[in-house]
Amino acid sequence: MTMFAKFAAAAATLPILLSLPTAVLAQTASSYADWRYLYVDSFENSAGQNITQEWWLSPSQTRQNSQLQFTLLARRSPMSDNGTAAALFGYVANCDSMMYAIESVQYLDVNDRILNGQTMQQAMQSADPDSQFYSVLSNLCSGAY
Predict the structure, then answer these.
(1) pLDDT tens digit string along 43-69?
(2) What is the pTM of this model?
(3) Cα separation values, 132 from 54, 96, 129, 136, Å
(4) Does an H or E element contain 129, and which?
(5) Burial of 8 (0-12, 13-18, 19+ CB in 10 A)
(6) In this structure, are residues 57 and 74 in contact, taking their beta carbons and an 8 Å threshold?
(7) How many Å apart are CA 21 and CA 31, to the nearest integer?
């Protein structure tokens, strides 16, 4: 085989080699990649294990007058015994009174597939001014996000 033939054969496989990592990257990219990181917190579960949660804000919010709807993603570590790695919380809030309620929760596995979910009907509660959530709600209401 001539040098030119070897080069031509190698060049013919180059597009295949270059496209493989791109295809893998597209398959593994998170569907939450454009969400805004907010903060991290932790709590102790019923077994006494420390759970860390990273909170992320959806880029889509809706507002009508003082009423605001938004979604937060909480990624937890370690994953719970039932396979829950994250949860999506759908909120409704009143910006005038700084009150909120959770309308829905969807629990996700490590691949961001929904394990289960529920809708909720609860009374609005006041956001604690000393909490990280309060500053998020305040920033949302002021249009900072």
Answers:
(1) 888 888 899 999 999 999 999 999 999
(2) 0.76
(3) 12, 18, 8, 7
(4) none
(5) exposed
(6) no
(7) 18
